[in-house]
Specification:
The chain has 16 helices and 20 strands. The chain is elongated and about 85 Å long. Bound molecules: ligand BES and zinc ion (ZN) (2 copies).
Length: 497
């Protein structure tokens, strides 16, 4: 996809030459000045007249009418130099690549240095561009009838730069973007096409591609290991449950292992505590946590950090039948704790309870769970910010710093002693899975804490952020692939305490 051109002259053929343009970067210098001269000063006139827009994320196209080898100039407006953030620059590249996709060009050339600012160096520009291209042009392979016209795709992006090191940055950005797209596709697949069995097959393919060790537990294995919480959720289903485990060894010794645990509910009807007609639609996305973990494992497979990781995905659907689990049932989780089921729709925390225990069993010394866990987190934080809970502030701060770089905001919710009492208020069992609607995002996280015990742990509730109803600069509506980049970058940068 990417080639670096050390030299560039205007006579070189290209469909489009892409140039970043800031507010008030006149008089033109360098490439812009040369181009301006080739057009007898008219480029500057176009900027003055507002035909070339310099505002953030504005794209202006100028046809060169044969005056240069480039057939067109694509100007990417960047606003004021001092105000440009990495996130806005990434979005500007997103808008650009959407435009390029609409034109169906096979190749474009980018003057990379025209995007550099005092705070964003060339290598960073390359990384953002590499990430924005796959993110912004992602499309879910839909099932609609297609017109019989071949689709032309962008095959080559040439970058003008003297710095050969940007190749690595481009590739890293691209890897993060591509893996996010893989997670989006998993989220977008309907539950008749993505069962727990399919999810396990996908994970095994990933493991084979990157040489991860893997283990897929079947129902009988779960019975032997006493995974009563995951089994209860699966009880009403004809689809077999799977406990998916992938191991990435980045060090000689199996130490400092980070456990990534993703909720893999392929469809959530709510069970006997059934969801409403409106609330049930979209519940194919209830495996967004699993998708984030698998996306992160794809980045980890590509970037090969010096860090051990075990990924654990408890997977099943949550459906109703004569055999389904019921409110009032008392079940026993793998760690021996008993749970009174007050609400079969609070199934994610049950599946994760056994997932967290199993990650510890596989040596996890740090735990991060990711789950579309509660409607409550959407009420609390909306759809832009992921809700987080933790028992270890230093560990959590590492994730917060990373999330600022990836542009995936997280916000911490508290756990108090009284919250702990509420999840332990069952008269018949150690825990109850639904202590009422007040602060129920917090209740869910507090329930999970009981399975983590003293292991440093972060809980990420992505119910609001795993999907989007609107198109954005870097994604269409549907699965967002949220947390793929944050989890994988955290693994890459992690410092054991
Ligand atoms: N999968 C849902 C949470 C969810 C809601 C995800 C909306 C995405 C969008 C979860 O299993 C659930 O049903 N949670 C209940 C918990 C309640 C019964 C305590 C909820 O949030 O209402
Ligand atoms: Zn539910
Ligand atoms: Zn659910």
């Amino acid at each position: 996809m990417f080639t670096v051109l050390e030299e560039y002259d205007f006579q070189k053929d290209t469909e489009a030459l892409v140039i970043g343009i800031f507010h008030q970067n006149q008089p033109f210098k360098g490439l812009l000045e040369e181009l301006n001269q080739a057009f007898d000063g008219h480029l500057m006139n176009l900027v003055k007249a507002g035909d070339i827009e310099v505002g953030e994320k504005k794209i202006s196209i100028v046809h060169t009418l044969g005056k240069t080898g480039a057939k067109r100039l694509f100007f990417v407006g960047l606003g004021r130099q001092k105000e440009l953030t990495e996130e806005t620059l990434k979005e500007a590249f997103g808008v650009l690549f959407k435009k390029v996709k609409a034109t169906q060009f096979k190749e474009v050339t980018v003057a990379l240095h025209t995007f550099v600012t005092d705070s964003i160096e060339e290598a960073k520009v390359a990384r953002l561009l590499g990430e924005a291209q796959p993110l912004s042009t992602y499309e879910f392979e839909h099932y609609k009838k297609r017109p019989n016209v071949p689709d032309k795709q962008l095959e080559s992006i040439k970058l003008i730069s003297k710095n050969q090191e940007i190749k690595k940055e481009l590739h890293t950005g691209y890897t993060y973007g591509k893996a996010t797209n893989s997670a989006r596709t998993l989220v977008n697949l309907p539950s008749n096409m993505l069962t727990a069995t399919h999810l396990a097959q996908y994970a095994v393919e990933l493991a084979r591609k990157y040489g991860f060790e893997y283990e897929i537990l079947e129902k009988a294995d779960m019975e032997t290991l006493g995974m009563g919480a995951l089994l209860a959720v699966n009880q009403g289903s004809v689809e077999p449950p799977k406990m998916i485990v992938l191991k990435y060894k980045g060090k000689e010794e199996w130490e400092d292992v980070i456990g990534l645990v993703g909720k893999g509910i392929t469809f959530d009807t709510g069970g006997y505590s059934i969801k409403s007609k409106a609330g049930i639609v979209g519940m194919k996305t209830d495996m967004g946590g699993a998708a984030a973990v698998l996306g992160a494992m794809e980045v980890i497979g590509e970037t090969k950090p010096k860090q051990n990781v075990v990924a654990v995905i408890p997977s099943t659907d949550n459906v109703i039948s004569a055999t389904a689990f019921k409110p009032d049932d008392v079940i026993t989780a793998m760690n021996g704790k008993t749970i009174e089921v007050l609400n079969t729709d609070a199934e994610g925390r049950l599946a994760l309870a056994d997932g967290l225990t199993y990650a510890k069993y596989h040596g996890a010394r740090y735990l991060i769970d990711v789950a579309t866990l509660t409607g409550g987190v959407i009420v609390a934080l909306g759809t832009e910010t992921t809700g987080a809970m933790t028992n270890d502030q230093a560990f959590f701060q590492q994730l917060v710093q990373i999330s600022k770089m990836t542009g995936e905001p997280v916000w911490q919710l508290p756990i108090t002693e009284r919250d702990r009492k509420r999840v332990q208020n069952s008269k018949v069992a150690d825990l109850n899975n639904s202590p009422g609607r007040e602060g129920h995002a917090i209740m869910a996280g507090t329930f999970l804490e009981a399975f983590v015990e003293n292991t440093p742990w972060i809980h990420l509730d992505i119910a609001g952020t795993a999907t989007s109803t609107t198109e954005r600069a870097l994604s269409p509506a549907g699965g967002t692939g949220v947390m793929v980049r944050t989890l994988s970058m955290l693994v890459n940068e992690f410092k054991p305490e």
